[in-house]
Design a protein that fits this description.
Layout: H1 3-51, H2 78-82, H3 86-96, H4 107-118, H5 134-143
Helix pairs in contact: 3-4
């Protein structure tokens, strides 16, 4: 084996290692972005649970787990939230990442999932229920079969 062929092999190995290093850095950035967005979303959910008493109450927006930016077209108020179309709900759930999107046929389940993730009581249900406290909502989220 000649020195020039060894040099070429070392250069090829270095290029491969540089590529692997770049992929690891990209994966690391995606993980940090995802974790940061989920942390902000947890705080927004708690704040929304506290303010969901009236339809004109402003909501704290959720963030995309892939970009850690506010989800585009996230509703500004509780009333706007309840007027979301099925397509809007699916889009928001996709921004929140797996495993949150139910089947496309299960529109009611998608709405229930988004209600929990956003910290907004279901449309008309639950808001009249005086026993529906923040603690009860969080407990139901934790014990839900959807979130083992």
């Amino acid at each position: 084996m000649s020195i020039s062929s060894l040099t070429e092999e070392v250069a090829a190995l270095k290029a491969r290692l540089d590529g692997i290093d770049g992929r690891f850095k990209t994966m690391e950035q995606r993980i940090f972005t995802n974790i940061a967005a989920r942390e902000v979303n947890s705080i927004a959910r708690l704040r929304n649970l506290q303010c969901a008493g009236s339809d004109d109450q402003r909501l704290y927006p959720l963030r995309s787990v892939s970009t850690n930016t506010e989800i585009e077209n996230f509703p500004e108020t509780v009333a706007d939230f309840h007027r979301l179309s099925d397509r809007d709900i699916e889009g928001i759930l996709e921004e929140l990442g797996d495993p949150y999107v139910a089947s496309h046929e299960d529109k009611r389940k998608n709405r229930q999932i988004l209600n929990m993730l956003a910290g907004v009581h279901g449309q008309r249900e639950g808001r009249e229920n005086k026993g529906n406290t923040i603690g009860n909502r969080l407990q139901s989220l934790v014990t839900s079969e959807r979130f083992p």
